[in-house]
Design goal:
The protein is mostly helical. Helix content is about 75%, strand content about 0%.
Amino acid sequence: MIIVSVLIGLIIGTVLGLTGAGGSIFAVPLLILLLGLPINEAIGIALGAVAVSAFVGSISNWQGKYILWIPALSLGLGGALFAPLGKYLGNQIPDLFLLAGFSTLAFTIAIIMWRQTITSPERAEVVRSNIGSETNYIEPICRFSDAETFKLTRKCFAGLLSAGLIIGLLSGLFGVGGGFLIVPTLLFITQVSMRQAVATSLLIITLISATGFFSFVASSPMVDWPLLAKICLGGLIGMLGGHLIADKIAGAQLQKIFAISLIVTTFITLGDQLIKGII
């Protein structure tokens, strides 16, 4: 049990560090399949583990100018507001329907990851856990403002906040970190480099996942803290390991492998739970 729990955490940290999908998208089905957790508990534990892993991974980005603090806090605010609502709604939905929704989202993320390796393979080279060697800092601007530098106008704040509301809702509902939506949102609104977008997204994932986890703790009388600690340990090892090997193995082919693995894992989990539900 200890080895399995740490292994799940290791996958969370590694995937979070080497791809843009977020480790929790793998954590939820693995927690269901390997540990037999109910989906709502799996979602809550995944959110807590992702919050810890993302926070540790974002520390290295503070050494540079890659984190866009105002966009991060604006988008993160929207996510923090709606993540508890998503978790509440998830508690009201039957497990099989919730798993079906999660599976649909997972398949969508896998397709996005695969398409990205074809249309924008350079994005797969930019990883969350590694600062990299990029030295060009692109001054952020807001697509909704005419200013030549970033100013948090009402339109800009509304755009970031609205995106955060949607991401937070999905995060609380399905336990995903939301990186697959955060990065393109930042690229569209602030028009910065991919390096800045992925670094900022890691901080946003921390804020949103932590809020979702706290709402899970508030609504759950019994939280398996020892299990969470084991998964967090594995997540930290995975994130730090990703920092060391990112430049050597990150790339389009690796992202394709993750996409296929996500589809297979989710399909097996969905089939297993459908059989149990029918029986």
